Amino acid sequence: MRKVVLVTGASSGIGLALCKRLLAEDNELYLCLACRNTGKAEAVRATLLACYPTAEVTTVQVDVSNLQSVFEAAKELKQRFQRLDYVYLNAGIMPNPQLNIKAFFSGLFSRKAIHMFSTAEGLLTQQDRVTADGLQEVFATNIFGHFILIRELEPLLCHSYNPSQLIWTSSRNARKSNFSLEDIQHRKGQEPYSSSKYATDLLNVALNRHFNQQGLYSSVICPGTVLTNLTYGILPPFIWTLLMPVIWLLRFFANSFTLTPYNGTEALIWLFHQKPESLNPLIKYLSATTGFGSNYVTVEKMDVDEDTAERFYQNLLELEKHVRVNTTQKSDHQS
């Protein structure tokens, strides 16, 4: 029987590299590309099928920042599949990242340089926006839209006789200091990306607590420092030209500089081969690369506690009730 894999954000970056590597591991997968842009998704589908003609590759349109889009995608997936073996919750945004120039130059020549570049701690701030659903965009895209998608897909995921896996793309930038239970959407702060990734780690712990006995397991990974179009947009091109030799040199001192999307998917592929029952829900799995370019997986214990995770989960359930009422009212009004 073909394994069924759903990947959000599959048309570029980590998501695209993951799809290619998954089919290289098992060219008879049933792979579903969940993307916002249907044109890009269909182009990726055609490319994948040209390389792996024995695979089944389909697409579904979903914008995880838009709740109506999430509900519609989930309905379509439930009509199409009886179960999902793996769901890679990879789609995410870091809108308009701004570099803290003072922190950058003060950290560049300090003992914290490697840590600063590995995690972007203190370097980046973002200007968040509000979605049509009245949610903070980073929170909606990186965590809440995926949460609603999971809730909608529970009938396809919870089978105790044959476990399913949720695998989240988190970050080393997930900082407890940037998250607050009193402001889970990070309306008042300037680091919504870090807050959303810490929220991802919390949700991961809570999902395992609530769903392991039903055959659903959750894990989080960090792809490392990957250079993408988003990353290159943070600094002017001439600064990147100056920095690239330094960044390549840093790989010999810090294994987190994976640099390419292919390398960044190492932990995602590793989890594809693991028995979910054997994994520790309090561990984050990290893609790592040696100075000479060899990939491997390392781990770190997450800075989370189960009580905070449970309280956050309950907050999400309350928010879910509220948005479902609003979404229903919008649908009734439009009809």
Notes on the protein architecture:
This protein is an alpha/beta fold and 335 residues long. Helix 3 runs parallel beside helix 6 and helix 6 runs parallel beside helix 8. The protein contains 13 helices and 10 strands. It has an 8-stranded mixed β-sheet with strand order 3-2-1-4-7-8-9-10, with helices on both faces. Strands 5-6 form a two-stranded antiparallel sheet. The N and C termini lie far apart (41 Å). The radius of gyration is 19 Å and the shape is globular. The model has no long low-confidence stretch (mean pLDDT 89). Helix 2 links the parallel strand 2 and strand 3.
Biggest sheet: strands side by side, in what order?
3-2-1-4-7-8-9-10
Radius of gyration equals: 19 Å
For the largest beta-sheet, the strand count, sense and barrel status come to: 8 strands, mixed
Helical content (DSSP H or I, runs of 4+): 40-55%
Estimate the global geometry from the Cα principal axes: globular
Family: Belongs to the short-chain dehydrogenases/reductases (SDR) family. ERG27 subfamily.
GO molecular function, one term: 3-beta-hydroxysteroid 3-dehydrogenase (NADP+) activity
Organism: Spermophilus dauricus
Protein name: 3-keto-steroid reductase/17-beta-hydroxysteroid dehydrogenase 7
